[in-house]
Amino acid sequence: MKRWLLLALWTSLGLWACSRDRDLPEPYRLLEVPSGRLGSAEARENGRTLFAAACAFCHGEKADGHGARRENFTRPPRDFTSPAWRRQTTPRRVFFAIREGVHGTPMPAWKSFSETETWDLVAYVLTAGEDHR
Ligand code: HEC
Question: What's the mean pLDDT when you consider all of the chain?
């Protein structure tokens, strides 16, 4: 009996993790996340370089939301170093936001980056907090 309860618990936890990406549009919801690449130092370094060049003037040099260009924004840029933010997002959601932009905010869509470059940006954004603890 106990074993069934445990099994049910793990199954529902698994479903919950998947369901966090369920509201994303089709190509993004089904994206294969390159976990190996995401965890690599190379991806993170490359992401950091791209971020400094293309994103820091809004999102801040330290990715903490304090860029030079943030006045008069309808929504201020997110603090990517926040553990709370990191917990409630997923790699696919971050990829989606970069590729498609965030409607109703000044966040543009970045289609000029290759898929690998976009994942590298995801790798950096999701670990930005670790630099500045
Ligand atoms: C013109 C200013 C601007 C630039 C440049 C910019 N962003 Fe944004 N970005 C925003 C704003 C404003 C938002 C909406 C508020 C928020 O969620 O941070 C946003 C949202 C996001 C989000 C979604 C955050 C969330 O809560 O899910 C991600 C991820 C993101 N930006 C990454 C990037 C990356 C990576 C780059 C560089 C390739 C970039 N942004 C460039 C202004 C900018």
Answer: 88
